[in-house]
Amino acid sequence: MPEPAADIANLSFEQAMKELEQIVRRLESGQGELEKAIEDYARGTALKAHCEKRLADARMKVEKIVQTPDGRMTAEKLDAD
What we know:
This protein is of the alpha+beta class.
């Protein structure tokens, strides 16, 4: 069986979140076999890490538009604070 994160790197944030939500619902239902629950948990952990990385990457790309003293508009990195 492939590693849980083998195909996750190719998922968009939205795809990963949708799958993660499905896994959470299955795990919360408490139904199903233990082995499948363990597999789901491992995949869910990998999906969560993927989503966190995607969000961190997006945050780094966010810029704010500011007006310089001479009236020009420019983009600067958005402060995290």
